[in-house]
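Give me the fold.
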Amino acid sequence: QVQLVESGGGLVQPGGSLKLSCAAEGFAFRNFPMNWYRQAPGKEREWVANITETSRWMYYRDSVKDRFAISRDNFLNTLYLQMNDLKPEDTAVYYCNTLNIWGRGTQVTVSS
């Protein structure tokens, strides 16, 4: 079964850190670039970060540059998002994606 399963979300105080994971099953993970997206309440889903197949290139939306780091392990078929210096505006459901494959998301809440 082709699927992506996110985990690692939670409640964190401003300035804190979280590391999200996304486990891929049922397709050749190593052959595809991967993305993280997020959707805040009442807002459209927005792209957060991208990583190429071999991790040669990573791209970020401006608001998370220097705070978030995307990475992948092609042996474990897992995508990661290390999030540091979290801000209340980072509160959202975070999704991993490639092509038309989406996970169900993991909730990240940044609040004191």
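The mean pLDDT is 97.
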